[in-house]
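Tip: read the tokens left to right.
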């Protein structure tokens, strides 16, 4: 089964470009809202790093999510899209002074702090402005996630967070700083997680920490990480948010008056986006044939960087299926989207969709080889 696309509209646009199906995005957001609302004290933030296209951000903001930012640029993008500053959380191991100042100026909800030196600087910069900054500590829970090594973050060997052993000490330090208010703990174990058991492991660790140390906090933030079905974007366009929130509800022992925060990126935007590209040439190799696209790793780097799978469809052909190596035009041998991919017979000018590319697609595009960045269009614009 292939996705449905407004092909005649696509023909008017310069390829490659990103296409966002707003029905899929809105249905996904509505599912998140319904499933999270069952629990009253759940607050969902969108991880802006996954996709900061202004049209996509506007739809997410309309649906009431907060914003999880990891840079001053993302804070600006979120504010520009209308996210309330009181719903912005700011994470990252290396926040520059100007970025901290920006967060302070806008009175963002919380800084997720990853080290003692960072804590000291936030306190100092807040003091200079006569403000008190809300801070949560990102704790490295030493919980592994069954996902790609480059996108697991919660193990002791990663650069992220404060170790569990240091936690008490860091809390003491923070409590003696006049311009900080310690309000919560933050965790994130990795991305593209489909095994709910990984989230159960995180819940167990959070319970242990809360029980052992009798910490008094109002906010627990469990990060993001829920994965999507890259193999079947048409069959399963909406991730299983029901099981996801249920898992936290059954395993995490929240105290009365605590709010549980989530920072979902991929699961919100992944399935609504496709990279649309045109076939430049079909080239015969010795034992194979290549479909050479006008999109390359500069437009979608995930296959080259993480050996990630994206379903590839020839959306303008019903010819009998043949196998192709689908490659881009960049001068790098890793510029390959897929090998021996079954596609309806390909000819020059056919349009190829690389599916499930709404998350970490357009936002990770680069200008390598002096290429232009791909544009992003929504289905709302192409009617
Ligand atoms: N919160 C924190 C602290 C994070 O580091 C991340 C992602 C998220 C939330 C959102 O995670 P998500 O719900 O999207 O899994 N470029 C990679 C993914 C990098 C994820 C980085 N952190 C990829 O293309 O797979």
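Filled-in amino acids:
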């Amino acid at each position: 089964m292939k996705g449905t696309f407004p092909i005649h509209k696509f023909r008017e646009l310069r390829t490659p470009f990103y296409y966002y199906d707003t029905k899929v995005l809105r249905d996904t957001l509505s599912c998140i809202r319904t499933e999270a609302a069952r629990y009253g004290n759940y607050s969902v933030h969108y991880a802006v790093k996954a996709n900061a296209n202004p049209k996509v951000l506007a739809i997410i903001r309309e649906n009431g999510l907060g914003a999880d930012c990891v840079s001053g640029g993302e804070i600006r993008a979120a504010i520009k899209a209308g996210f309330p500053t009181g719903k912005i959380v700011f994470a990252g191991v290396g926040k520059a002074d100007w970025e901290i100042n920006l967060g302070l100026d806008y009175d963002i909800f919380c800084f997720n702090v990853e080290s003692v030196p960072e804590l000291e600087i936030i306190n100092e910069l807040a003091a200079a402005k006569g403000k008190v900054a809300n801070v949560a500590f990102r704790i490295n829970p030493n919980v592994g996630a069954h996902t790609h090594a480059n996108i697991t973050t919660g193990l002791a060997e990663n650069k992220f967070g404060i170790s569990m052993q240091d936690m008490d000490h860091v809390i003491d330090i923070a409590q003696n700083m006049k311009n900080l208010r310690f309000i919560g703990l933050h965790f994130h174990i990795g991305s593209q997680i489909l095994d709910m058991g990984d989230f159960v492991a995180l819940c167990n660790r959070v319970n242990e920490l809360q029980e052992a140390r009798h910490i008094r906090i109002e906010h627990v933030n469990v990060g993001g990480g829920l994965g999507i079905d890259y193999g079947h974007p048409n069959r399963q366009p909406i991730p299983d948010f029901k099981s996801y929130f249920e898992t936290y509800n059954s395993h995490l022992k929240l105290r009365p008056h605590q709010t549980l925060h989530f920072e979902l990126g991929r699961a919100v935007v992944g399935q609504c986006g496709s990279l649309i590209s045109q076939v430049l040439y079909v080239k015969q190799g010795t034992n194979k044939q290549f479909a050479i696209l006008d999109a390359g790793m500069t437009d979608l780097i995930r296959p080259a960087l993480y050996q990630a799978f994206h379903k590839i469809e020839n959306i303008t052909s019903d010819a009998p299926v043949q196998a192709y190596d689908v490659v881009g035009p960049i001068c790098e041998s890793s510029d390959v989207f897929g090998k021996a991919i079954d596609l309806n017979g390909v000819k020059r000018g056919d349009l190829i969709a690389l599916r499930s590319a709404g998350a970490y697609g357009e936002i990770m595009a680069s200008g390598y080889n002096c290429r232009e960045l791909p544009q992003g269009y929504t289905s709302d614009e192409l009617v």
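The radius of gyration is 22 Å. The mean pLDDT is 95.
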